[in-house]
Amino acid sequence: MYLKALEIQGFKSFPDKTRITIGEGITGVVGPNGSGKSNISDSIRWVLGETSSKQLRGAGKMEDVIFGGTQTRGAMGYAAVSLTIDNSDHGLEMDADEVTIGRRYYRSGESEYTINGQSVRLKDVYELLLDTGLGRDGYAIVGQGRIAEIVGAKSTERREIFEEASGIAKYRYRKNEAERRLAAAEGNLERLRDILGELEKRVGPLKRDSEKAEQFLAYSETRKGLEITLWVDSIRRAQDTVRDQQRKYEAAEILCVSPRQLQRIRVRMKLKWRKVGKETHYLLKELVEAIERTQCNWNPTAYERAMKRVTRLPRY
Fold first, then answer.
1. pTM of full prediction above 0.85
2. Residues 78/68, Cβ–Cβ less than 8 Å
3. Averaged in consecutive runs of 10 residues, what is the pLDDT profile of the chain (316 residues)?
């Protein structure tokens, strides 16, 4: 695994897009003081996840890594660096033969990380480079004064470098992550126990309220049925009252007729009775004649009785 290419734009003294191809073996960068040689190593450290501007020889703000402009050229709005690594030996835990790590930072404070064009988190970049020596805390990049810092560092700080070189830093990191997650899970469990205790205290009152609510619903259904029955009975009573009043009204109208109207009614009734009598007499006569014509068994006594009933009908 080795570096293949470095592309810089807007980072420190590189306002234009600059691509540096790195071949196998040793590659040296030669130039006078102040020409930006250290900015190349700073860009590599920065794209690999360095978050301290002081480590990049800045004034304390990450915005300092963006090209600030000159008298003849304006300042850039962002800094972007991408580093291509040969991964033919699969030293990085990825299937690709080339891995390109990119980082972009804007003056607004927004930052983006990519691996082979896919947006990722800084944590993903850090985990990818564990035990490779290329990480932000790795030993592969040794800047100015770094040897003196290592020699004068505390034993715990030197231990981190040795762990990175020996390949156990990844496992220590995973152990710390697991412990952190366990602590977070324990905290969540503790909160859940508190919530469960609070809810258990409410179970009794809520159960009583639920029983009251069920009783209320049952009584409401019964009340609704009774109200419907009362409404139907009230409607029936009202209908009976209306019919009774109607009959009384009609009777009152009959009682309130004038004598002249009564005389007219009597005349109409006489005419009707006369018409009914004539029709009845005629029908009985036809019946007797039909019996005679058919020569059925003749009973003179029955005939006389029938004729007497006919003669007794009122004549108007």
1. no
2. no
3. 88 90 84 85 87 73 86 89 89 86 92 92 85 67 68 74 68 83 92 89 87 90 84 78 73 63 70 64 58 51 54 47
